Amino acid sequence: MKAFQKIQYATLAFALLLLFSTNAQELTKTSPEDVGLSSERLNYLTQIFQDYINDDELSGATILVARKGKIAYFESFGKNDIENNVPMTKGSIFRIASQTKAIVSTGIMMLQERGKLLITDPVGKYMPAFMETKVAVAKDDGPYEIVEADRPITIRDLLTHTSGVSYGYGIAADLWQEAKIQGWYFADRDEPIQATVNRMAELPFESQPRTKFVYGYNTDILGALIEVVSGESLDVFLKKNILDPLGMVDTHFYLPLEKRERLATVYSATENGLERAPNPGGMVGQGAYVDGPRKSFSGGAGLLSTSMDYARFLQMMLNKGEFDGKRIISRKTVELMTTNHLPFPRDEGQGFGLGFSTVEDLGLRGELGSEGEFAWGGAYHSSYWVDPKEEMVVVYFTQLIPAGDIDDHGKLRALIYQAIMH
Question: Exposed site from 50, 80, 154, 323, fewest CB < 10 Å?
């Protein structure tokens, strides 16, 4: 009897060990067929993206597709650096620009979970400069007038891009230009993010709170808010609470010097093919992500990352806040973040949650996918989406600005979904 019990205990212990090991090894590679995809049909994806490289439309790219918690497809194409004949690899590091927004938005939600703030709070409760903001209103007989905002903007307004703040190119563009705050690129700024953001509060926004979707500095303001509420710089807060727990070892605001060679080169689409973007340049350029002041942590567009790192973050969101045995945020928080919050349409069939676009009506959107999908992308032509119905994560990284009329985003989506067998 005792021998039988020992066997039972040993069997149970082995089963628990196996279960733990399985849970701890998320995002391991598997064959496409193991997760309901067709290897044969995925070859179309490989062929088409190799054609973009051969036709000088893309310098290089990585594509990662995970389904049911495992990587079914992960390929790199082309060159990290064409002129120096450096191949693109799965470990290449990319400027992910606005894909930073989802990570910073998650940081804000973590602070709510810890009782440090409520997203219904006025931003001015923590950053007094934002308690009373202004709005530029275009006039029929002249340029514009400046009026008081109807109410203080809230943290939720920033998360949903309904605060009215743009990237400084709208109605009162002259005042934003005079303040030297225009565009999403911050890496060359020789001042901390809070200094820049507090100057934004003095400038007129584009619309009254929660009346329009205005894409702009919302998440940069959220990044500064994280610093104020947590008492830590944004880079330290994100590293401690999101990046390190998720094992995102290659995600940085500014690249460690020993990783310099892994940073993919930025190219621009021209009538004559690809041209290397200037160094450092500005929004179109290589940027000051290695050599520069290293002072401004842009919550809206500042991070560098790899396909694998970003897939780990997205898999956590697909897993309702958990990854590799670690709980990052709660299931209910993920539900709130990936639900449409807009009281008006943004694009046909699409809404916007707390840091992500959302698909509300598949037919109105008119592209392959699923209702409930959440997504976004970056200025350097990167893209991602999470499809909970298909249990799928897609990360597409490249470095192309401007991108011209290349149709790679649409082809990527079509060629992934056509490979689903069941």
Answer: 50
DSSP states of 223-262: HHHHHHHHSS-HHHHHIIIIITTTT-TT-BSS--GGGGGG
Cβ atoms of residues 123 and 153 within 8 Å: yes
SS3 call for 157: helix
DSSP assignment of 292-314, as one string? S------TTT--EE-HHHHHHHH
Q: What is the mean pLDDT of residues 270-276?
A: 96
pLDDT digits (tens, 9 = 90+) for 367-391: 999 999 999 999 999 999 999 999 9
The DSSP secondary-structure symbol of 152 reads: -
Tell me phi and psi for residue 155, to 5 degrees. -60, -40
Separation of first and last alpha carbons in the chain:
46
Q: How far apart are CA 273 and CA 290, in angstroms?
A: 27
Tell me how far apart the alpha carbons of residues 342 and 40 are, in angstroms, rounded to a whole number: 41
The number of C-alpha atoms within 13 Å of 220 and in the hemisphere containing its C-beta is 31
| Identity of the amino acid at 289 | Y
Q: Is the pLDDT of residue 340 over 90?
A: yes
pLDDT of residue 4: 47
**Residue holding tokens 């109410």?**
151
Per the CB < 8 A criterion, the answer to whether 342 and 162 are in contact is yes
Q: What pLDDT score was predicted for residue 291? A: 95
Give yes or no for residue 339 having a pLDDT over 70: yes
Helix, strand, coil shares, percent, the chain, to 5: 35, 20, 45
pLDDT of residue 141: 84
Q: Which is nearest to 391 in space by CA: 68, 35, 31, 71?
A: 68
- SS3 of 159, please? helix
Token pair of 293 as six digits: 């002041």
- What are the φ/ψ torsions at residue 361 (nearest 5 degrees)? -140, 105
- State yes or no: pLDDT of 16 exceeds 90: no
3-state DSSP assignment of residue 137: strand
What 8-state DSSP symbol labels residue 26? T
Which residue is listed with tokens 């009215």? Answer: 164
